[in-house]
Amino acid sequence: MYSLILPFVRLSFFAINPQDLPASRGLLVFTLVSYGLVSVLIATPLSDFGTGIVQSMIELLLLTGFTLAALRLRNHPDRSAQTLTALAGTGALLSVILLPFLYLFAPAGDAAVSQELLVINFLVIIWLIAVYGHIFRHALSVNLMLGIMTALAYLVITTTIINRILSA
Known about the structure:
With about 170 residues, this protein is mainly α.
């Protein structure tokens, strides 16, 4: 299991690039399923299980759709498996890091989210933007700033769509 996770740890610390991952359908499915399961676990303490599943499904659709569209716009559709594997794998890994803090500091009942949780969540999001920027930089063959802007655009679009759908 360690050998399966190690490339995503290395990718999260910018030690490798997404093209260093194998273009494996099995690994892609594994990372997408892992990302989906962790997304449910992340959403559940702040909502209910059903909402977590819906949010997870929306996230997976948006991650896939956004990535495929960006790669197609840059004429690199052949990089989709490795890019999606890298994004889903690192997204799941960074979310797993957030999980214990989320459950430790999650609000009970109608209580507000704690300051500690907000700070930790903010730090993980900054790290996620940097990692996703690194991945998009290589996948789209652009500079790091454009990769980070692409990652930020993805997160803003995803957050906006999920909030609109779930608040309706």
